[in-house]
Amino acid sequence: MLQAAAELALDVGVHGFTVDEVSRRSGIARTTIYRHFPNKNQLLIAALDDVTPAPRTPDTGTLRGDLLELLADLLPIFASKQVRALYLEIAASAVRDVELGGLQQSMMERRSGPTRTIFERAQERGEIAPHFDYRNALLIFEAPLVMRALGPAGSLDDFNPAVHVDQMLLVLQTQIPGAVQNS
């Protein structure tokens, strides 16, 4: 069911996604689908969550090393034009659809767990000050990937994870004095 839903979502996007078509493609009755997913939005988010592997939580012993390994897991997700388009289409639709927005936000919070853990471990090691604001760091870390996802299909071709992480750490040191310790 989730595989058929994911394939449909990647093929037609949010607006063409229907439970009827998932039922037809999967051979699973609509009533069975609705027993597991009360509505189209819940099925759509579950399918997207299922089709994109969750990132690992690396533990290299350094903030920089952990962020580089995390990016190695995230980049293949962003490299897929269909997945990128679906993520962006869901984000755009979520502006008008409160329920979809809540489901998307919950999925993204679950998926940002490894990043939160990376920053918490860095705090424990003394690489990040205790007053460090994780939410701002997450935005600084993710924003360049999201902005590249909005661009042309090849916009990740010249993305250099090491440069990105080094710039992020520099921005954090500049914007939040003492937030990131020099390493």
- Say what oligomer this is: single chain
Instruction: State the distance separating the first and last CA atoms.
Output: 48 Å
Which bin fits the share of residues in helices?
Answer: over 70%
Kindly report the average pLDDT value: 87
The second-level CATH architecture of the largest domain is Orthogonal Bundle
Task: Tell me the series of helices and strands, N- to C-terminal.
Answer: HHHHHHHHHH
Tell me what the structure shows.
With 183 residues, the protein is mostly helical. It folds into 2 domains: 1-51, Homeodomain-like (Arc Repressor Mutant, subunit A, Orthogonal Bundle), CATH 1.10.10; 53-183, Orthogonal Bundle (Tetracycline Repressor, domain 2), CATH 1.10.357. The protein contains 10 helices and no strands. The protein has helices spanning 2-16, 19-26, 30-36, 40-51, 63-79, 81-96, 98-111, 113-124, 134-150, 161-175. Helix 9 (134-150) packs across helix 10. The model has no long low-confidence stretch (mean pLDDT 87).
